[in-house]
Design a protein that fits this description.
Number of helices: 11
Strand content: 5-15%
Strand order of the largest sheet: 3-2-1-4-5-6
Shape: globular
Number of strands: 6
Order of helices and strands: HEHHHHHEHEHEHEHEH
Helix content: 40-55%
Length: about 240
């Protein structure tokens, strides 16, 4: 099922072989069904600073560092440049609103998929644009059996967030892997772009409202609809490498 996808990936990146030893997960919209809450928090916080942010904007910028999203929006809507400190102040309000909302659920199928990955002898990492400590603590609480903090990349680990390749390059370093030795699981176009720029085979799970074409346009090697579906075909993917 995946042999042609892998063959095309190797050709595009000029790699000789595909031997994964790590799977790097995005967090929001992949491990947690958190994007609806993030969207509301973004809209409320940005309104407080005289900015407009639609639900489509929230999904389109998903994966970027929050401060980068804010600096971009201020430039576009108010015509001014702000430094990271001012953007962080604005982002802090968004974070407080988000954490006052009900806890988001784990995406169905995540735990079973992680077990299959671990049983296959692969490491598990997380690469997120978030830097909020409560979210990192929750990752450890929910997935500590499969994931250690040393393999989590946050907004504070890199200067340039997604769609730059830096977060996924850092994820590779934390898992001691090279691009052809990893698989990325993403749901956001900017995250897919970042993973492709890092040269990593990318499985997109389209858990949001964007069309599949938005993920395909950024170079996703495989597009599925749910994490459960990825778990169902994991053995077939593993047989391909």
């Amino acid at each position: 099922m995946f042999q042609e996808n892998i063959k095309q990936y190797l050709k595009e990146h000029g790699f000789e072989a595909f031997h994964p030893k790590a799977v790097l997960f995005d967090m929001d919209g992949v491990l947690y069904d958190s994007m609806p809450n993030h969207t509301v928090a973004w809209q409320q916080a940005m309104t407080a600073f005289g900015l407009q942010m639609t639900a489509a904007d929230a999904y389109a910028t998903e994966g970027m560092r929050g401060v980068d999203t804010i600096r971009m929006m201020v430039k576009e809507q108010q015509g001014r440049d702000i430094d990271e400190q001012e953007a962080q102040h604005m982002y802090d309000l968004k974070a407080r609103i988000f954490h006052d909302m009900p806890e988001t659920r784990i995406m169905p199928g995540v735990a079973l998929l992680m077990k299959k990955i671990k049983d296959s002898g692969l490491e598990i990492g997380v690469v997120t644009g978030s830097g909020q400590r409560p979210l990192i603590d929750r990752l450890i609480k929910d997935f500590g059996e499969y994931l250690g903090e040393a393999r989590i990349v946050t907004a504070y680990d890199v200067k340039h967030g997604k769609p730059n390749p830096d977060p996924y390059l850092m994820g590779l370093r934390k898992c001691n892997a090279r691009p052809w030795e990893a698989i990325v699981v993403e749901n956001a176009p900017l995250g897919v772009r970042a993973a492709q720029a890092a040269g990593i085979f990318t499985v997109a799970v389209n858990t949001g409202p964007l069309p599949d074409e938005a993920l395909a346009a950024e170079g996703a090697n495989v597009i599925l609809q749910t994490i459960t579906q990825l778990g169902d075909v994991w053995e077939q993917l593993k047989e391909s490498f």
